[in-house]
């Protein structure tokens, strides 16, 4: 396990109880997004979903509630404890070291608010692994460039403390993804969040 992965496993174990407080609110927000953009996701019975960096499982839960077969993957047992309490199937794994799943095992691979927390070289590993695992599409749910100035500064400072690259991600999100995918379409799903739908 890399120093980055070990550090983040520790950090997210410490703050998992805070994240779990927001499970209900965030999972229902994610479900509304899935219902609003269902046509671009495909038919639930035909799409198997993997949620990379699932954390407490808010997006994973939302996909399950929308009828999709979904599994989560995360490095933090503490974060996944909340997911499992909510009936979510999870696998403990280090995304950056390569997950145990076979190539193209899922029609849709997603990662929610994961990419902005990584430096550019590590984001590339995330993109490469997501591309390897998906047979069709990848969905990155993350911040866009519409976030107001004050929250940007706060988030950037917090991310710098834990080794993230919030500012760099927002500036180069689509360009970085296009190094690994043939097409990237951005859907602004709320004021500060976008879905980046990538095709192989």
Automatic annotation (TrEMBL):
One biological process term in Gene Ontology: methylation
Keyword list, A-Z: Methyltransferase, S-adenosyl-L-methionine, Transferase
SUPFAM superfamilies xref list: S-adenosyl-L-methionine-dependent methyltransferases
Keyword Transferase: yes
Span of domain Methyltransferase: 49-133
InterPro entries: Methyltransf_25, SAM-dependent_MTases_sf
GO molecular function: methyltransferase activity
Protein name, as recorded: Class I SAM-dependent methyltransferase
């Amino acid at each position: 396990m890399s120093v980055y992965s070990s550090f983040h496993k520790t950090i997210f174990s410490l703050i998992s109880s805070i994240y779990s407080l927001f499970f209900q609110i965030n999972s229902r927000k994610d479900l509304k997004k899935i219902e609003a953009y269902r046509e671009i996701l495909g038919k639930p019975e035909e799409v198997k979903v993997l949620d990379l960096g699932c954390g407490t499982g808010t997006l994973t839960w939302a996909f399950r509630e929308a009828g999709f077969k979904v599994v989560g993957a995360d490095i933090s047992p503490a974060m996944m404890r909340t997911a499992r309490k909510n009936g979510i199937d999870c696998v403990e794994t280090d995304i950056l070291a390569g997950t145990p799943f076979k190539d193209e095992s899922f029609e849709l691979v997603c990662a929610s608010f994961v990419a902005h927390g990584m430096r550019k070289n590590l984001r590339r590993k995330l993109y490469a692994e997501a591309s390897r695992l998906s047979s069709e599409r990848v969905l990155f749910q993350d911040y866009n460039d519409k976030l107001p100035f004050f929250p940007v500064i706060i988030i950037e400072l917090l991310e710098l403390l834990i080794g993230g690259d919030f500012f760099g991600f927002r500036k180069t999100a689509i360009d970085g993804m296009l190094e690994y995918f043939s097409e990237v379409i951005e859907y602004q799903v709320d004021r500060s969040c976008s879905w980046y739908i990538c095709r192989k």
